[in-house]
Write a structure and sequence with these properties.
Distance between the termini: 18 Å
Strand content: 5-15%
Membrane topology: Multi-pass membrane protein
GO biological process, one term: transmembrane transport
Number of helices: 15
Organism: Flavobacterium beibuense F44-8
Order of helices and strands: HHHEHEEEHEHHHHHHHHHH
Protein name: Peptide transporter
CATH superfamily of the largest domain: MetI-like
Structural class: alpha+beta
CATH topology of the largest domain: MetI-like fold
Number of strands: 5
Shape: elongated
Strand order of the largest sheet: 4-3-2-1-5
CATH architecture of the largest domain: Orthogonal Bundle
Helix content: 55-70%
CATH class of the largest domain: Mainly Alpha
Number of domains: 2
Radius of gyration: 27 Å
Largest sheet: 5 strands, antiparallel
Subcellular location: Cell membrane
Length: 369
């Protein structure tokens, strides 16, 4: 098949595949999306919101290891359901980090973990709590060494687990905010560009008003109006990003509606809605796709800023912006990785979306050779 006979979509895909950084960035995004969807499968701490922690092991360095003693709760069993792989476990048996233990004939004596062993507290529990008196069974089933690959945060929670689960917020905000911005922006941009006149003047007046307000201030105002929460932030961010989409769609529609195939559609008696959605919009999506990739990155940064200000996802829901807020003071206290880890994760994700956007721009540029 000759190059001239290939569709523009196939040609764009071929050009995109030749862009090494674009393909690498898209692969990184897809892998991160997969990890975010199955976050509780990959996270070492599979409790809901990865929220298990113990203050005795707070702010530990990467690679920290400690023995964990599980103390079963009578009458409650830790069950695993299919939904737990997506939402995390609601109930887990309590765990206690320990320095050492000794099993006697009828009890287990353990020393709770403490940075200063001289201040460690020693406690005893009857063996009946474990449902067995066999020392080997207790050692095997209830005492295990736990390793924190990236260390623990200021609340003694596993930092790696919080990072993995927190990726859900950043990725979800991108998808939801971009979806909202596309729906609103394409609608206003299409009617402004197609009908022109007073409709165009009103839409552009509305766009200019919204664009004149700083994005972060507008998001904060909408968030305060809707209330603090997970979905409120998504809606607020989405409602501030549609203006760019509307301006681009308006320009594309104004250009395309003058073409001959639109004139032919009018001559055939097609109504305006059919002409807009079936003929004009499909031919104006290339720049919209590029803007959407950039809006993904912008949405992630805006959400992180809101979380840093305390207006984003509320505790105990983990988010990268919230993690930076909780640990930015540790940068000067000798443990900068607590804030740098979520910051680097955010940097890589935003960079990946920007690289994909640049690759899409090059691939969809019909004037390029």
């Amino acid at each position: 098949m000759s190059r001239n006979n290939q569709s523009l979509t196939i040609l764009a895909l071929q050009k995109f595949k030749k862009n090494f950084w674009g393909v690498l960035s898209l692969s990184f995004i897809l892998i991160l999306v997969f990890i975010a969807v199955f976050a509780y499968v990959f996270a070492p701490d599979n409790t809901k919101n990865a929220n298990w922690g113990d203050l005795s092991i707070h702010s530990k360095s990467p690679g920290f290891k400690v023995e964990m003693l599980t103390l079963p709760v009578p009458g409650k069993t830790e069950e695993t359901h299919l939904s737990d792989y997506f939402t995390g476990k609601e109930f887990v048996q309590p765990k206690v980090p320990i320095l050492g233990y000794e099993i006697n004939s009828d009890s287990l004596t353990y020393t709770e973990y403490a940075n200063d062993p001289d201040l460690a507290v020693t406690k005893s529990v009857p063996l009946t709590v474990f449902g067995t008196t066999d020392p080997e069974t207790i050692k095997t089933d209830f005492i295990k060494e736990q390793k924190f690959i990236l260390g623990t945060d200021s609340q003694g929670r596993d930092l790696l687990s919080r990072l993995i689960v927190g990726s859900r917020v950043s990725i979800a905000i991108g998808f939801v905010a971009v979806f909202i911005s596309l729906i609103v922006g394409i609608f206003f941009g299409a009617i402004a560009g197609f009908f022109g006149g007073k409709v165009d003047a009103f839409v552009m007046w509305l766009v200019n008003i919204i664009w004149s307000i700083p994005t972060l201030l507008l998001v904060i105002a909408i968030t305060l109006a809707l209330g603090k929460g997970f979905w409120q932030v998504f809606v607020a961010v989405g409602l501030t990003m549609w203006v760019e989409v509307a301006r681009v769609v308006r320009g594309q529609v104004m250009s395309i509606k003058q073409m001959q195939f639109v004139t032919a559609a009018r001559a055939l008696g097609y109504n305006n809605i059919r002409i807009i959605f079936n003929h004009i919009l499909p031919n104006s999506m290339a720049p919209v796709i590029v803007i959407s990739a950039a809006n993904f990155a912008s949405a992630i940064l805006v959400e992180s800023g809101l979380s840093f200000l305390g207006l984003g996802a509320q505790p105990p829901v983990p988010s990268w912006g919230g993690m930076i807020k909780d640990h930015y003071n540790y940068i000067i206290l000798g443990k900068p990785y607590l804030a740098l880890a979520p910051g680097i994760a955010m940097l890589l994700l935003v960079l990946a979306f920007m690289m994909v956007g640049n690759a899409l721009r090059d691939a969809l540029d019909v004037k390029a050779e």
